[in-house]
Amino acid sequence: MMIMRLLFTSLFIIGHGLCLADDLPGNQKKTGRLTVQQAAELVAKANASNGKQSQLDLKWLTSIDRDVARELSYYKGQRILLDGLTSISKEVANELTTQRPGWYYWPDTKIPQKGISLDGLTSITKEVARELAKCTGDLNLNYVKSMDSGVARELAKFQGSFLNIQKLESIAPEDMNILKDGLRRPGSENSYRSMMPYKLKDGTRLKKWNGKTIEYRKDGSKIREIDYKYGGVILRMEWDEAGNLVKEETYPVHKPWGVEVDEQYKSPDWLSKIQLSGSYRLRGKGFASLVTPEGNFWLEEGRSASGYKLIELDLSKSSPSALIQKGDQQAWVGLRLGMPVEMTDLDKENPDYDLTFDNERFAPERKHPYDDLTFREGANKERIAYAKDEDEPFTGVGVSPKRKGSLGWESRFLNGKLHGKKTLFYNDGSILSEEPYLNGKLHGRSIGLSSVAAGRLNWEKQHINGKQISDKVYFRSGSVRIATSFKGGKPVLKSTWDKDGNLIESETY
Predict the structure, then answer these.
(1) What pLDDT, in 10s, does the model give residues 448-504?
(2) How does 334-361 read in b/e, with b if 16+ C-beta sit within 10 Å?
(3) Of 10-19, 83-92, 126-135, 158-167, which range is least confident?
(4) What share of the chain is helix, strand, coil (3-state, %, to 5)?
(5) What pTM does this model have?
(6) Domain extent for 469
(7) Domain count, the chain
(8) Collapsing DSSP states into helix, strand and coil, what is residue 281?
(9) Is there a single domain that holds both residue 157 and residue 28?
(10) Quick one: DSSP state of residue 106?
(11) How many CA atoms lie within 13 A of 2 on its CB side?
(12) How many CB atoms lie within 10 A of CB 170?
């Protein structure tokens, strides 16, 4: 399979220079149209290349009828470029996707792999989408701006290798769920047979799985909040500049087809129906006010009411949170303007650790070319380094020079495992990045430094025994641009600031 993909990629690259964009029968001038005879002659000439021409470049075409489309469908190459078309009929789409013999086939099948590029289209109908979904190769619809329910449901049946919709701006949450289900690779959460936009015009993240995103104004007030569950939107709220809630839309939880949802990451169904409206602590006891479908009431820490029990109250942060139990399920609820959020207490997950161990304490004197080190699998399937022709695991510094002779990087080893600093250098010898290791695992503070301003941080990360706990990216001014917190090695909270230090977005996972 991999060999076939590499072959297709190579042929695609070669084919870029082997198109017929300028070759019309009889040296005729391009008029934006083709007759049936011209189309047949173009295809015959391309097919005579016996595979050397992998695509047919007809981007100059501005209109096409059914008969011309039928002739073009006999082209045996990998794709036809028709980006000059601004509209297309269902009949033309049907002819273009009719399966005919080709040079490239899906492995172990008789199905030809033929793609179509239609990047001149900004919209399509349900009927056209139904025909284009029969395309067996790559289908480019990058400039289609919006999809209604009918179009989304038809494209969810797409049979080809890859659907490109990178400029999509608008689609209803329910329709996006259906489209993603159809394009999702089996068993995967966020891997699709599609190149989608990162974010829609309304702020929806198309590849976000769980959690939420909140956008802020410079004064700290909210603009928008979007909650996600299993890759779909379940709640959308928007506020005006005066702080008034002007939109609140809820959507049913959509459990994606073909994906096993890990129970430990499921939030209780009741969590979205309760709200923490107040809290305080008196004589060491915590009290929380809850808004629930069963009524509004105060709970004392360790006590129950109406089926809810306050397990713990956390007032250590700027936004209080309460650990609530209902039945055999527990969840953190945060004090919010609107619906509640699940809170993660990073202090409980990551108590104080010593991240300042002495990276140089064994001070190995021996230096050895990194390229001459070999790696074998250890008892715990970790990589163990050995110097060439030696049986004992390597202890020392592996060094790797750059082409011009300066040092590229150096890595410290103890008993064959990375231990101490791994340092990368710029051409002038200044430090590009440093990563500390403890017994083969990242442990401590890693940094990336600027090449133009000595000592200026580009980024920094913290790890504990191989698991990441934080990640920061900086502006050139030195202020934080993005900060991400992790729990169990997975991101739980991401905050983004502008250059003036204003929080503009927060995202939970």
Answers:
(1) 998 887 788 999 999 999 999 999 999 999 999 999 998 888 888 899 999 999 999
(2) bbbeebbbbbbbeeeebeeeeeeeebee
(3) 10-19
(4) 15, 35, 45
(5) 0.64
(6) 367-508
(7) 3
(8) strand
(9) yes
(10) -
(11) 0
(12) 12
